[in-house]
Write a structure and sequence with these properties.
single chain; alpha/beta; seven-stranded mixed beta sheet; four-stranded antiparallel beta sheet; 9 helices; 11 strands; 29% helix
Length: 241
């Protein structure tokens, strides 16, 4: 099930204004340049920020996203016609042969079901040409990021053009082994509407990810640190032989 923050049209429309700093994507742009990727598949592309960054650089991009409301936002952006947008997920892709597959931000962790995760990795493998690469990130569970997810540390008010003031905060709902569930709340000053979006992330252990990649036929090349969040993220780079 897709989180309301991506699937609800009112929330999808304010996703970018509420998270305008996407410098986390700079590392992925550099990786695409490092591998000389000319064709990229972005799994869980959301509102299309990363596919558009790549297409602006002349790269052929396919963005796949299960939330129709987010995809509508992506398709309405300048330059969107240069990207091939697919409403769906990586478990049922059309035939592709790309140089690089990406899952940025929370995408890999948001695939909380183990079988869905394996099917996603299989879809990525089949979409890659031999010698192509897969790159994604996941939070290091040892850092216990969820302990900082509370209203006191997250409350903020954003003035969204054409919408007005929106108050937002996050609250932890529960931790069940590797699964962490939390709720974002959005309060609209213009009409008083309050919307919520519940999410569950799987905090993968490094050895579990390495095992899953190997089982699907990938060769793990490197595990990097995220330059904008040192010590907090594990960035996996794997290759299809």
């Amino acid at each position: 099930m897709t989180d309301a923050s991506f699937a609800d049209p009112r929330l999808a429309a304010i996703y970018d204004p509420l998270d305008p700093d996407r410098t986390d994507l700079d590392a992925y742009v550099r990786i695409a340049e490092e591998f000389g990727a000319r064709r990229v598949l972005d799994i869980g592309c959301g509102t299309g920020v990363f596919p558009l960054l790549l297409s602006d650089r002349g790269i052929e991009v396919v963005g796949v996203e299960p939330a129709g409301a987010s995809l509508d936002v992506a398709r309405a952006k300048p330059g969107a016609e240069r990207v091939r947008w697919i409403h769906g997920d990586a478990t049922a892709l059309p035939p592709l042969r790309v140089d690089l597959v990406t899952m940025t931000a929370n995408v890999a962790q948001a695939i909380a079901d183990p079988e869905a995760w394996r099917q996603t990795l299989r879809g990525a493998y089949e979409a890659l040409r031999p010698g192509g690469h897969l790159v994604f990130e996941t939070r290091d569970p040892a850092r216990r990021a969820w302990e900082e997810w509370n209203r006191a540390s997250s409350f903020g008010t954003t003035e969204v053009p054409g919408v007005g003031a929106v108050e937002t905060w996050v609250e932890l709902l529960g931790v069940d082994g590797p699964l962490v569930t939390f709720r974002w709340t959005y309060a609209f000053a213009s009409d008083g509407q309050v919307l919520t979006s519940d999410s569950t992330l799987r905090f993968h252990e490094r050895h579990e990810v390495e095992r899953d990649l190997a089982e699907l036929g990938f060769e793990l090349q490197e595990v990097r640190d995220a330059p904008d969040r040192p010590g907090r993220e594990l960035v996996f780079l794997a290759r299809r032989p």
